[in-house]
Amino acid sequence: MTRKKFTLLDVQARKEQGQPIVMITAYDYPSALLADRAEIDIILVGDSLGMVVLGLETTVPVTMEEMLHHCRAVARGASYAFLIGDMPFLSYQVSTAEAVRNAGRFLKESGMDSVKLEGGREMAPTVAAIVAAGIPVMGHIGLTPQSVSRLGGYRVQGRTSQAALRLVDDALALQESGCFALVLEAIPAPVAETISSMLHIPTIGIGAGADCDGQVLVYHDVLGMFDRFTPTFVKQYANLNEQILEAFSAFREDVAQHRFPASEHVYHLDDAELADFRRQLENREHLVRSE
Ligand code: KIV
Predict the structure, then answer these.
(1) Which residues form the domain of 284?
(2) For position 229, what pLDDT does the model report?
């Protein structure tokens, strides 16, 4: 069966059919190829790349140019998944015009199908303007890492009844402004379940329990490739850090012990050519010596 591109219509259809949406982050060509081959529905080029790929402390310093660079690589690797480019901090907060222009760059210059931005009801006019320009927008509420300083750290959101009600209002405002889906990050499962059942657009959870319409995890967390910290909600499906470390150590040891390269890794020369090469070299040396 030939696979067809996962589109915005499929995202909405999954909600209506009650079939979970599977989303993962990816940041380059090989990771996009593999996510696509595994039939992941949505690839998010998250600004989490600042932490897991660029080694930054937070996502705050990530720039538009860095995002577009990684989005282009992902777009070259993925032909099936729906692609979302994450708008970095201050690329959409300063003015609506700047937000629309920057959102447009994800589609025009880097092959994304849509964008994601963080924030609640205060972002509704911005979302509406981007959507009016023909660009699909995914919202993101709960723990919004770009606001880590204001939130006082990476902590679970919506833990009091008042905070939970604010999340409900944010979700409704973002839906009303035209978001096609919402990420719910690090919020209590009953709050996420309530929001998911109230909305007609899908919710994609990360640390928000099993009742969201889909789930997203960060590529490096799924594969065990980021060990600075591991949030409670992460399920590791592999421990590639360990495997990569073993492979690098084995390579170093093979070179040090003259075990690599072995005969099968070497380009050989035909016996007759080798003999001729040596003979000619010898003649040349003979000439040099007699000069
Ligand atoms: O940047 C990112 O990877 C994200 C996901 C965690 C949703 O925003």
Answers:
(1) 244-290
(2) 83
